[in-house]
Amino acid sequence: MAESLRALARTRWRVAIGFTIVMVVVYFGFILLIAFDKQLMARRISDGLSLGILAGALVIVASWLLTWIYVRWANRRYDPELERLRGEAGR
C-alpha cells in the first residue's frame, strides 16, 4: 500500500513538473521575444493587432489549456487511484 502511494505521488510529481516546464518555456519564450526581437513582436497582423498582442493572448490560452489538461488527468487517473488506495487502507 505504502509503495503504491509513493508511486502515485511520484507520478503526480512528474506530471506537475512536466506541465510546469512547458509553461515556463512558453512564458519565458514570450518574454525573450519581447526583449530581443521587438521588430517581430511589433509586426502588424491586422489593423489594431500585432504579433506581440496575439502571442500574449496565446500565452494566456496555453495556461488555461495546460490547467484543463492537468485537471482532466487528475480527475481521470490520479483521483480514482487515490480513492482506490484509501479504500484499501480502510479495510
Largest sheet entry: 2 strands, antiparallel
Q: For the residues shown, what is the average pLDDT?
A: 95
Question: Strand order across the biggest sheet?
Answer: 1-2
Question: What percent of residues are in strands?
Answer: 5-15%
Structural class: mainly alpha
Characterize the overall form.
elongated
Counted by DSSP, the helix tally is 3
The SSE string, one letter per element, is HHEEH
Low-confidence stretches at least 5 residues in length (pLDDT < 50)? none
Helix content range of the residues, please? over 70%
Number of domains: 1
How many strand units?
2
Structural key phrases:
single chain; 91 residues; 5% strand; mainly alpha; 87% helix; two-stranded antiparallel sheet
Describe the model.
The protein is mainly α and 91 residues long. The chain has one domain (2-89). It is 87% helix and 5% strand. It has three helices and two strands. The chain has a two-stranded antiparallel ribbon. Strand 1 and strand 2 form a beta hairpin. Helix 1 (2-36) packs antiparallel against helix 3 (51-89). The chain starts with a helix and ends with a helix. 0% of the residues are buried.
Topology:
Blueprint: H1 2-36, H2 38-42, E1 44-46, E2 49-50, H3 51-89
Antiparallel strand pairs: 1-2
Short description:
The chain is 87% helix and 5% strand. It is mostly helical. Strand 1 and strand 2 (49-50) form a beta hairpin.
